[in-house]
Design a protein that fits this description.
mainly beta, Porin, rod-shaped
Length: 260
C-alpha cells in the first residue's frame, strides 16, 4: 500500500511538471520607451579680435565767429550733409550671462564742409580797400575722422546691442575765407581738432564669424582757431574761431571676428 502511494505521488508530480510546461507562458514585462535627449546647442561667443569696414552718412554743423581785429563778433552757422567710409578694428570679451565689453578704433574719410550761402556782412572800409559793403563766408573742411572708444553691450546669442564712448579726432585742410570783394583766401590753422564720441549700435552674427551692424554716433569737437595769412590782400591777420562743432553719423558695417 505504501509503495502504491509513493508511486502515485511521483506520477502526479511528473505529470504536473509536464502540464505546466505545456501551458502558455506569461509575456515578459514591457520595457520603458527610450528617452531622446537632444544635444545642447552652443551659443555664439562674441569674444575675439575683429576687423571690418563701414559706409554711411554724416551731418556736420558749426559756428564760425570773427574774433578780430576788424569784424570782431560777427558770426555765421553752417550745416552740411555728406557721405563717409572707412574701417574699424576692435576686441570683444563676453562674460557669462551675455555681458560683452570691448574697445574699438575707427577711421573714416569724411569730406564735408561747414559754410553758408550768405556769410558775414561787412561795411565799406575805404582805408582797407573795401569801397562797398560785402559778405565774407568761412569754409571749414573736414577731411577725416577717427575715434577710439570703449564698448559695453548685452548679447542674445548672435544678436548684440551695445553702447560706446571715447575720444574723437578730426583733420581739417583747405579751409578758406571767401569775400564777395576779393574772392577766396586760404586760412592757416591746426591740421586736426579733438573732442569726444558717444554712440549706440546693433550687431548680428549672420554666418560663422561674420557679422553686420548698424550704428549711430555723435561727435562733439572743441573750438579751433584760424588765421588769415599776413600776405593776404584781404583781412590780413584776421582771426576766426570755429565753435559748437558737432558731427552726427549713421553707418552700416561688416565685421569678421578671429577666435572662438
Amino acid at each position: 500500500m505504501k509503495r502504491i502511494f509513493v508511486a502515485g505521488a511521483f506520477t502526479l508530480a511528473v505529470g504536473g511538471q509536464a502540464l505546466a510546461a505545456d501551458l502558455p507562458q506569461a509575456p515578459p514585462p514591457p520595457h520603458a520607451p527610450a528617452t531622446y535627449v537632444p544635444a545642447p546647442v552652443a551659443l555664439y561667443n562674441w569674444t575675439g579680435f575683429y576687423i571690418g569696414g563701414n559706409l554711411g552718412a554724416d551731418w556736420n554743423q558749426g559756428t564760425v565767429t570773427d574774433t578780430g581785429p576788424f569784424f570782431r563778433g560777427l558770426s555765421q552757422t553752417g550745416n552740411h550733409t555728406g557721405f563717409l567710409g572707412g574701417g574699424q578694428v576692435g576686441f570683444n570679451y563676453e562674460f557669462g550671462g551675455g555681458v560683452v565689453i570691448g574697445a574699438e578704433a575707427d577711421f573714416d574719410w569724411a569730406p564735408n564742409n561747414n559754410n553758408t550761402a550768405t556769410g558775414i556782412a561787412y561795411p565799406a572800409l575805404p582805408a582797407l580797400g573795401i569801397v562797398s559793403p560785402g559778405t565774407v563766408s568761412a569754409t571749414i573742411n573736414n577731411q577725416w575722422l577717427t575715434t577710439f572708444a570703449g564698448r559695453l553691450g548685452y548679447a542674445w546669442d548672435r544678436l548684440l546691442v551695445y553702447g560706446k564712448g571715447g575720444g574723437a579726432w578730426v583733420g581739417s585742410s583747405n579751409s578758406t575765407i571767401t569775400s564777395s570783394t576779393f574772392g577766396p583766401v586760404n586760412l592757416s590753422n591746426n591740421s586736426s581738432n579733438y573732442g569726444w564720441v558717444a554712440g549706440v549700435g546693433l550687431e548680428y552674427a549672420f554666418w560663422g564669424n561674420a557679422s553686420v551692424r548698424v550704428e549711430y554716433d555723435y561727435v562733439g569737437l572743441n573750438s579751433a582757431n584760424f588765421t588769415v595769412p599776413a600776405t593776404s590782400p584781404f583781412l590780413a591777420n584776421e582771426t576766426f574761431s570755429s565753435s559748437n562743432r558737432d558731427i552726427q553719423m549713421v553707418t552700416v558695417g561688416l565685421n569678421y571676428k578671429f577666435g572662438y
